[in-house]
Amino acid sequence: MSASPPPASPPPVPAHWPADVYPPGTTGWQRTAVRWLWQFVPAGYRRHDVLHEQPVLLALLAVHEADASREAAARAAAVVREHPDVLPVPALADRVVRMLEEEGGRLAGLVREAESVASVLTVEVRRRTPA
Predict the structure, then answer these.
(1) What is the DSSP-derived secondary structure letter of residue 25?
(2) pLDDT tens for residues 56-106?
């Protein structure tokens, strides 16, 4: 009786890989990555064929857009801290700052996830592109 080969193990999932994107190497992973990345860029970018044709470019733009949003949340928190009177009810300043800091943390996580996707897409493209 011959032993059957062990079942193939799933490909390793890179650090900071988004839960909504199939792991690299699985069927359809690039499709799910591209669909996930579109959430970070302005809606008008969908009109441009180059972003549909070049997922690495889409990924790099998504990283920059997510990071810009993170920076904007940090700047907004700083403004509210320095000028609580900009709010109609200054007592809300602490709540607004906490909300912006929480959102900044969430966005920082999304930046790491987008960087992870961009990195894997870049490696895929380089592997398929003849030297």
Answers:
(1) T
(2) 999 999 999 999 999 999 999 999 999 988 888 878 999 999 999 999 999
Tokens of 66: 């997510």
Rounded Cα–Cα distance for residues 25 and 10 (Å):
9
- Write the CA distances from 121 to 12, 41, 63, 96, 99, integer angstroms: 15, 17, 13, 37, 33
**Distance set, CA 8 to CA 4, 11, 12, 17, 26 (Å):** 12, 9, 12, 21, 12
Determine if the pTM surpasses 0.70.
yes
Count how many residues are written for the chain.
131
Residues ≥6 apart with Cβ < 8 Å to 15: 116
Neighbours of 106 (CB within 10 A): 13
